[in-house]
Amino acid sequence: MNHIAVDMMGGDYAPLEAVKGVAAFFEAYPHAPVHLQLIGNSQQITPLLAGENIPENAFSVIHAEEMIGMHEHPTKALKEKPGSSIATGFRMLAEGTSDAFISAGNTGAMMVGALFSIKTIEGVNRPTIGAYLPREDGSLGLLVDVGLNADCKPENLNQFAQLGALFARHILHFDNPKVGLINLGEEEGKGNLLAQSAYPLLKQNPNFEFVGNVEGRDILTTRADVFVCDGFTGNVILKLAESIYDIVQRRNIHDEHFSRFNFEMYGGVPVLGVSKPVIIGHGISHSIAFKNMIHIAKTMLDTHLTGKIADTFSASA
Amino acid sequence: MNHIAVDMMGGDYAPLEAVKGVAAFFEAYPHAPVHLQLIGNSQQITPLLAGENIPENAFSVIHAEEMIGMHEHPTKALKEKPGSSIATGFRMLAEGTSDAFISAGNTGAMMVGALFSIKTIEGVNRPTIGAYLPREDGSLGLLVDVGLNADCKPENLNQFAQLGALFARHILHFDNPKVGLINLGEEEGKGNLLAQSAYPLLKQNPNFEFVGNVEGRDILTTRADVFVCDGFTGNVILKLAESIYDIVQRRNIHDEHFSRFNFEMYGGVPVLGVSKPVIIGHGISHSIAFKNMIHIAKTMLDTHLTGKIADTFSASA
């Protein structure tokens, strides 16, 4: 039985939407062999949980006296608020009480926690966070990195590609995910110094199929399944794509494909390269996001993704 | 009377669409005090011109025996094909026969030509190319750099901001254009090393109003009028935004705002920081793009933009 810790206090609509998300998860997967550890202010969340139809032994409430606000300084807040829901979640991960951790709270604190509270998988220089990309055929691509690593070395991009390809294979069900290097032109030799130097590393990496450089216009297509770039570029891409959904909504456009630009549908973004699944949710997460984040964490555990990552990286070391 | 040189052989639909664009320009501005120098294979373009209703003394045909293909190596092609339409255009600019040059041909050759055939304005370290950004209120923002400078130093971004603000003021008619630094977070101190170091330079620059960091989600909004980033990031942003139009078209969505994501409407992108207006068009340019490029070049000449840039840069030196 896997234990997944959920920060019930994180996100703009916590704890109510977190509670609803937990309920929605068990409604969708009533017999899921998973135990949820709901971390938060028990006076607030227990009455809310009582109002939902959740199997009693499927969860336990872990009281956390404090919480880290959305705009607090990550490192400082983690240090000064050891009793916060985020600090508690990472402590439970580190102690082995939990197998995965989910939060829609302070993104920076989640990143810092993932990097420093739990181990990075041996051979991984820098963990990364990815985001889903909706494509017109209904499938999802993966964009890595989307902000954890603003400045990157060529080998970082090569490792993001390898991590992303494993996630795409085991979680997104691509038999042989195609990896593209985001660049300003298609031809080999194009790009900034980083992309130019990363290209030969990706080309020589035997762990995935490299399709070469891809451009901005390819990111929402199936030219690749895993799109690799530094976290600065990836963050700008992700937020630009998210804003398209806002525009579409404001303009009252109803379109099946553009409705999939609602990134909340996908729950959070996985941290890849750390020893246990960590999912970072969007601040504006509603119940569907919490439900989906729990499902992603469960799938990562069921498929033993972190073990597979460890195997691949130890083999390529 | 200004002389604007137009490469009639550049672009996927040249020379026919270039000819139609010239005709469309004179239809829209029949008394424009401008003389167009139409560079290309005269056997091909003269009969096409004869079929259009263009004032006879408004243009002259400059025969060019060769042309540079869309996929030729820029530097090599410019050197080996001195008789090409692009090389001819830059020679005419350099000699002073022409006041501005437009081409939808080989983008790399246009960049190399702009950088090395004509002078960079004194004080400008690196010229830049910008692109328009459609906003929901009907106005256009400006994104700089969109690919001329893949790797940048902080001072480059500061200069792109200054160049972009001048373009926005004089060509896009913003009284006091707001400049935003594209970044992965809003707070000062966020970003990759480049953005972190550029921030204080932009903040201290007295030549424009700096509104701080802007994120991917802000790029299609009015949070800023000039969005500044390195050419790698900008190129990816521009091509991603262009691809939104393709998706909207494929999905048969008719929306006034998204119709403005058709970047062809805006003609080409201006090279800023060189001593004479140079406009680089999209390879797929149709007549409307040629018409608009001629109009942008004319406006840049009418407003003496390069002189104003020279004044500002000599004052801040």
Folded structure, characterized:
Chain A is α/β, with parallel strands linked by helices. Chain A folds into 2 domains: 1-124 and 273-304, Isopropylmalate Dehydrogenase (3-Layer(aba) Sandwich); 126-265, Isopropylmalate Dehydrogenase, CATH 3.40.718.10. Chain A has 11 helices and 11 strands. Chain A has helices at 16-28, 42-50, 74-80, 85-95, 107-116, 154-170, 193-204, 231-250, 256-259, 287-302, 305-316, and strands at residues 2-7, 34-40, 59-63, 100-103, 128-134, 140-144, 178-182, 209-214, 226-228, 269-272, 278-280. In chain A, α2 (42-50) links the parallel β2 (34-40) and β3 (59-63). The longest helix of chain A has 20 residues, at 231-250. The first copy, chain A, starts with a strand and ends with a helix. The interface between A and B is large, with 41 and 41 residues.
Descriptors:
11-stranded mixed sheet, Isopropylmalate Dehydrogenase, 317 residues, alpha/beta, 11 helices, homodimer
Count every helix of chain A, treating DSSP H or I runs of 4 or more residues as helices.
11
Helical content class of chain A: 40-55%
Structural class by sheet pairing and helices of chain A: alpha/beta
Question: What best-fitting shape of chain A do the alpha-carbon axes yield?
Answer: globular
How would you name the oligomeric state of the polypeptide chains in this document?
homodimer
CATH topology of the largest domain in chain A: Isopropylmalate Dehydrogenase
Please state roughly what percent of the residues of chain A sit in beta strands, choosing from under 5%, 5-15%, 15-25%, 25-35%, 35-45% or over 45%.
Answer: 15-25%
List low-confidence stretches of chain A: none
Number of domains of chain A: 2
Topology pattern of chain A, helix = H, strand = E: EHEHEHHEHEEHEHEEHHEEHH
The residue-averaged pLDDT of chain A reads: 95
- CATH architectural label of the largest domain in chain A: 3-Layer(aba) Sandwich
Q: What's the gyration radius of chain A in Å?
A: 19 Å
Give the strand order of the largest sheet of chain A, numbering strands 1, 2, ... along the chain: 3-2-1-4-11-10-5-6-9-7-8
Kindly, what is the distance between the CA atoms of the first and last residues of chain A, rounded to a whole number of angstroms? 32 Å
Total count of strands of chain A? 11
CATH C-level class of the largest domain in chain A: Alpha Beta
Largest sheet of chain A: 11 strands, mixed
What name goes with the CATH superfamily of the largest domain in chain A?
Isopropylmalate Dehydrogenase
Chain pair forming the biggest interface: A-B, 41 and 41 residues
